[in-house]
Each structure stands twice: as structure tokens, then as C-alpha cells.
Amino acid sequence: MLTGACLCGDVTFTVGASPQGPSVCHCGQCRRQSGHLWASAYVARSDLSISGKVKWYAASETAKRGFCPRCGSFLFWAADAEDTMSFALGALEEPTGLRLEKHIFVTDKGDYYDIADGVPQKG
């Protein structure tokens, strides 16, 4: 079982299943909201227990982003039509035992950095 929290500790979460798809997103929305990029994994919504108040932002017509209203930590991403939810890898207590599987939306990445870690890259 993995646990995580926002920067101030007002929002905590427990991951009750093996996380899937550990990845780094380089899309413009993730870069703008996080200040660089966003690393996450996902589980079924029923396997993610969240405590504390989460503020949800409708980032598009099909997905929302959850963050702590006190400290602003960006913790969750969920597509409206899916029964899974992504959570921030950086918010997890270590050790996580996880390894990145892919970089996504790399065509949108910032021009100020390179991806040179050997992890597969997708569009």
C-alpha cells in the first residue's frame, strides 16, 4: 500500500492496489499547472482513498484535475469517461517501488530541456 500527501498535509491519499502506467506527462496543461512536468500513475477510482478537501478544476471538456485548495499541490487527474484516477508520484511517501514506464505528450515538451533517461517516449 502506498500513501501520499500534499505539501501542507491537508490532503492525504492511500493507494490500495498496484499502480499502473507510471509516466511523465509533458503536455502544455501539466507543464503550466506544475511549473515543469507531471509524473503520475493510475489505479481504479475505487482503489484510491482520499482524505481532506480536494478542489477540482475542469481542465477540458473531458477531464478534471484535483489539487489542495490550501497549498495548491496538484495531486490528481481524472478523465470523466474512465473509472481510473491518476495520482502524483511526487506526493508519495518513499520507498514507492515504482519505475517510470514512459514519457507522454513529448511533442509538447518545453524547449528548455531534453529527455535523456532512456525511458520510451510517446507523442
From TrEMBL:
Q: Does the keyword Zinc apply?
A: yes
Q: Which residues form the CENP-V/GFA domain?
A: 2-114
The yes or no answer to whether the keyword Cell division is present is: no
Q: Keywords for this entry?
A: Lyase, Metal-binding, Zinc
Any Pfam family: GFA
Recorded GO terms, molecular function? carbon-sulfur lyase activity; metal ion binding
Query: Which family does the record assign?
Result: Belongs to the Gfa family.
What is the protein's given name? Answer: Glutathione-dependent formaldehyde-activating enzyme
| Organism (species) | Roseovarius tolerans
